[in-house]
Structure formats: C-alpha cells, structure tokens
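Milestone M4 deliverable, item 7.
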Amino acid sequence: MEEVLGRFKGSRGELIGILQAVQERLGYLPERAMLRIARFTKVPESQVFGVSSFYAQFRFKPVGRRRVMVCQGTACHVRGGAKILDEIEKRLKIRPGGTTPDLEYSLDTVACIGACALAPTIMINKDTFGRLTQKKVGDIFGGTPEKGGE
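Output delivered:
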C-alpha cells in the first residue's frame, strides 16, 4: 500500500486514481485498503466506500488469477453460448461473478468479446478461444464436470 500511495500527494481529487492503482496492485479493494486510502486523502471513509461502490470497475472480493469471460452476444448465443457457460460452471463449480476457492479462476459473462466469426467464444485473461464445444471446454479446463456451484 505504501508503495502505491507514495505515487500520490494525497489530495481529494486523486481518490479515483488511488483506488484504481490499489486495485491494480492488489486485484481488488479490501476494506483495510479503503480505510488507509481515507486516512491518506483525508476523505471520510463513507465517501471512499461510496465512490468505490458507485463505479462498476471496482471489486471488493479477490479475483482469480485467470479471469474467464464468456461471451453472451447474439452470435455466441445463437451458436450455443448458453451450453458453453453451463459447461464452464459445472467444471469450475462457480457461477458468473464467482471465484474458485483456490483463487485460480473468476467467471464473468460479457455482452460481446468482438470475435463473432469464432462464436461461441470465451476469453481467459487475454487469450481468446473460439468455435467452442462442450468437449473443447473440457480440453481447456480439464477434469470431470460436476453439478454444483455457488
């Protein structure tokens, strides 16, 4: 935290930039970090929490090392995107918005990845996987699918 905060003066106008920098460093905004930011910027804790909860870019729970984004755009939907999402949920045992207990994967849905010609598609971090089938999902994630999830 101190390394990140050292790049700032601590002014009220830097609040969003500080929140972004801390999240980039830690992967999310833990409560203790937001309390430290409030002291550093001399902004009331309630305002730091208010600003961070207003913007969708900020996360309050740790995310996995591998962020899985399943496209739900029209082309992916028409070509079986729902089955792909279902298969990933079974294999990772989490639902969209969730993270595996080992912090290896986080699962999200997105409106469009921009690879419609490869539908249905997913991204894992910066890697795109297209023309997916349930078998290909198994090849990517391994293991045996099981019912369940959070």
